[in-house]
């Protein structure tokens, strides 16, 4: 936030500066308090020794670099701990909103939304499969930036469904999944399989976050509409 408020950077340079400073801050903190754990960060060269580690911190120092650079609020910072390939703990900060949501103190889910379902999609490239499912259930599409901001919008009750099929990496969704699961939401791949982390290839292309009661219908609709 200090970098964004200064006049030293603008445009892409602002995003790069935010990524770099946040990455350094997080990695230095982890090295101090969890020196024996492995780390997978979007902004670091991948170290294959993490594959033999039980505990791996999965970090996205700045999720939604474009939104950060444009002065928007829908960007996030992700810090998660994978234990045995599972998103065991995580926190998603929404600095522009002054909020941090964490798995150890998950917020209570608000009551179900009474109107048409609100489905989150990418600002720039809404996935065709998600749009087709939205049409099938009469959902309102809500365009938003980062994956963390989208997932936390469901946790906060600002939206109902985050169905993503456009491609992601482990750092994009590990922390959001940990927080959403702790809050009592359904989290899975779009075929209903669990999300598994700390794999050799960190590409993890799809996920579904929604209220548990909505998951069976949504998973069935996805299966009927293959990408």
UniProtKB/TrEMBL annotation:
One of its GO biological process terms is:
sulfate assimilation
Pfam families referenced in this protein's UniProt entry, alphabetically: Inositol_P
Q: Where does Mg(2+) bind?
A: 42, 60, 62-63, 172
Stored PROSITE patterns: IMP_1 (PS00629)
Q: Please list the coiled coil stretches.
A: none
State whether keyword Oxidoreductase applies: no
Keyword set, alphabetical order? Magnesium, Metal-binding
Taxonomically, which superkingdom? Bacteria
Q: Is the keyword Metal-binding assigned to this protein?
A: yes
Q: Name one GO molecular function term.
A: 3'(2'),5'-bisphosphate nucleotidase activity
Catalyzed reactions: adenosine 3',5'-bisphosphate + H2O = AMP + phosphate
Q: What cofactor requirement does the entry state?
A: Mg(2+)
PANTHER family named among the record's database cross-references = 3'(2'),5'-BISPHOSPHATE NUCLEOTIDASE 1
By what name is this protein known? 3'(2'),5-bisphosphonucleoside 3'(2')-phosphohydrolase
């Amino acid at each position: 936030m200090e970098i964004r408020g200064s006049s030293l950077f603008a445009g892409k340079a602002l995003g790069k500066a935010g990524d770099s400073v946040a990455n350094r801050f997080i990695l230095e903190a982890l090295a101090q308090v969890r020196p024996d754990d492995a780390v997978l960060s979007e902004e670091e060269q991948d170290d294959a020794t993490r594959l033999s580690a039980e505990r791996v911190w999965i970090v996205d120092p700045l999720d939604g670099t474009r939104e950060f650079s444009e002065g928007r609020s829908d960007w996030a910072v992700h810090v998660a701990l994978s234990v045995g390939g599972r998103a065991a703990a995580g926190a998603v900060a929404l600095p522009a909103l002054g909020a941090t949501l964490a798995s150890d103190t998950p917020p209570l889910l608000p009551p179900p939304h009474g109107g048409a379902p609100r489905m989150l999609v990418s600002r720039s490239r809404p996935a065709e499969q998600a749009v087709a499912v939205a049409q099938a259930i009469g959902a309102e599409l809500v365009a938003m930036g980062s994956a963390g901001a989208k997932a936390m919008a469901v946790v906060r009750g600002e939206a109902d469904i985050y169905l993503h099929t456009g491609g992601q990496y482990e750092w994009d969704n590990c922390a959001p999944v940990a927080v959403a699961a702790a809050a009592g939401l359904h989290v899975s791949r779009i075929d209903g399989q669990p999300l598994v982390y700390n794999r050799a290839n960190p590409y993890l292309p799809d996920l579904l976050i929604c209220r548990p009661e909505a998951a069976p219908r949504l998973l069935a609709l996805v299966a009927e509409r293959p990408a």
